[in-house]
Amino acid sequence: MANIDRVNGEIEHARRLVARSRQTIYALKRDDIATADAELVLSRQLAHLETLIGERNRLQQAETTPVRPRVLGGRSW
Length: 77
What we know:
Helix content is 75%, strand content 0%. By secondary structure, the protein is an all-alpha fold.
């Protein structure tokens, strides 16, 4: 559970960084300044965010998958 909590914290942090980068891009566009570098940083942040979300989903799936005990003879009760 601690790993999922850590990943959730990182996801929230990454979302705040993405929001801040988007605000910066909007401000640069408003002032007619080139935004290519800022958009590159944003794309990297979004890729990192997708990786974190995938890791969180994998951890949640591993945590919720029940282990079915096997009985001698292959029967499951």
